[in-house]
Write a structure and sequence with these properties.
With 455 residues, this protein is of the alpha/beta class. The protein has helices spanning 22-40, 45-61, 63-74, 78-98, 137-148, 162-172, 188-196, 209-221, 244-256, 276-288, 308-320, 352-355, 371-379, 394-403, 440-445; strands spanning 2-6, 14-19, 104-107, 115-122, 125-129, 152-156, 181-183, 202-206, 225-229, 234-238, 266-272, 324-327, 342-345, 362-368, 386-390, 408-411, 431-432, 446-453. β6, α6 (162-172) and β7 (181-183) form a beta-alpha-beta unit.
Length: 455
């Protein structure tokens, strides 16, 4: 069975067609990875670091080619695509250094003549299930720590980003031992084959809540370590003492940038009653100013959604939520999968726009009677990935950061954007398992061995 990837800006542009690996192909890849992992785990940390540094240099050398493909395959605005590739280079270099960090610690033994150690060792083979929206950064923030700590990595990318994954493998694969890093193409059948294979020691997933729950249950059922980042319904809270122009500019881009196709995008804008009307007008103006068409144009900030189904689903959510469409709410007259940036004013925090992840350039605007009411609205969803609060009162901001139910909380900054050296993940249904990125990644891609040496 084959599948294709098309350009969301121009659906007539076929990126490629490939065979799905299926269960047989996935099992064969796991078998190769298992043999490669036995060699890679015994490779000195300095050699692993050198390989990742070489990979970073190779990605940097072909950054323009990779950027162009990201723009073409997933419709990411070129300025963001350029930044994502640069971020991929930085991630590889960061984990190259992590490969040289202490691999454990010594502890006081009961007998002072004995040596007691706790050491981190690689888990073996890791399956990495990644989405299409960050086709360079997310595969690398999973693969780089896995490789740095001595594991073999199997990347199963979204079918909509297969070409980018293959180019990434073409760039970095030759700099690693054979089969230590492989791309396994396919859909749900291929993913399940990787999850179910008992030789896969760890599964790292990023995607929707529905799929993430299935991935987590399947992996956990056989005792496999698993982490799942499953999106969000992220609030930005604007209080009465906020800098309204700054907040409107930040939120407009956080909600609409890259057509809202980020798990950290702002979905709900919750505004204090005292400044509601003023802020509503400023936000509408800020959204109107965003460039939409042709992601290859450096002026574009929004771009197309990934496919026709995503656009139809977003429009259905707008229609089902009631309220008043302040701007947008319709497809654009263009060949690609374009949806006008949309802001919907809701009378109550109900309906799909206020309760589920839409993954499109659509945001709900909600009025709050007070700061307490705003926090109550912000927390009243099943997600908890990221939240933002805009205020000029630092003490108030610190208090609110303790009450917001999210894995990442920002003050006077957009919800979108993640620092790769900081732990990343959410609470409630946004995440399952250990955090990703930064030093937190070691806890997932290694396991502890306690060693006692007696003379």
């Amino acid at each position: 069975m084959t599948f294709t990837s098309v350009n969301p800006h121009n659906p007539a542009d076929l990126i490629g067609e490939w065979d799905q690996a299926g269960r047989d192909g996935a099992d064969a890849a796991v078998g190769r990875a298992l043999k490669a992992a036995l060699v890679w785990r015994d490779t000195p940390g300095a050699a692993r670091a050198q390989a990742l540094n070489s990979a970073a240099a190779a990605v940097e050398l072909r950054a323009s080619e990779l950027t162009d493909l990201v723009v073409r395959e997933v419709g990411k605005p070129v300025t963001e695509a350029r930044g994502e590739v640069a971020r991929g280079v930085a991630i590889l270099r960061y984990y190259a250094q992590a490969a040289l960090l202490p691999d454990g610690e010594t502890l006081p033994a009961t007998d002072p003549d004995q040596l007691l150690m706790a050491r981190h060792v690689p888990v073996g083979v890791a399956a990495l299930l990644t989405p299409w929206n960050f086709p360079v950064a997310i595969p690398l923030w999973k693969a780089a720590p896995s490789l740095a700590y001595g594991n073999a990595a199997l990347l199963k990318p979204s079918s909509a980003a297969a070409a980018t994954a293959l180019l990434l493998s073409e760039i970095i694969g030759p700099l690693l031992p054979a089969d230590v890093f492989q791309v396994v193409l396919g859909g749900a059948q291929t993913a399940r084959a990787l999850i179910d294979n008992t030789s896969v020691a760890a599964v790292s997933f990023t995607g929707s809540s529905e799929v993430g729950r299935d991935v987590s249950a399947r992996a956990a059922a056989r005792g496999c370590r698993v982490q799942a980042e499953m999106g969000g319904q992220n609030p930005s809270v604007v209080l009465g003492d906020a800098d309204l122009d700054r907040a409107a500019t930040a939120i407009a881009y956080a909600a609409m940038g890259y057509a809202g196709q980020k798990c950290t995008a702002t979905s709900r804008v919750i505004v204090a009653d005292a400044v509601y009307c003023d802020f509503r007008d400023r936000l509408t103006v800020a959204v109107q100013a965003l460039g939409v068409v042709d992601p290859a144009d450096a002026r574009t900030l929004v771009g197309p959604v990934i496919d026709a189904g995503a656009r139809a689903s977003a429009l259905e959510a707008v229609a089902a939520s009631g309220g008043r469409v302040l701007i947008g709410g319709h497809p654009l007259d263009a060949p690609g999968f374009y949806l006008a940036p949309t802001v919907v004013e809701l009378d109550s925090p109900a309906g799909p726009l206020a309760t589920r992840e839409v993954f499109a350039p659509v945001a709900a605007l909600i009025r709050a009677d007070s700061a307490d009411h705003a926090i109550s609205i912000a927390n009243a969803v099943r997600y908890g990935l990221v939240a933002a609060v805009f205020t000029s009162d630092l003490g108030h901001a610190l208090r609110l950061t303790r009450r917001l139910e999210a894995g990442m909380i920002k003050v006077n900054a957009p919800t979108s954007g993640v620092d790769f050296n900081a732990p990343f993940g959410g609470c409630k249904e946004s995440s399952y398992g250990p955090r990703e990125q930064g030093q937190a990644a070691r806890g997932f891609y290694t396991e502890s061995r306690t060693v006692l040496i007696a003379p």
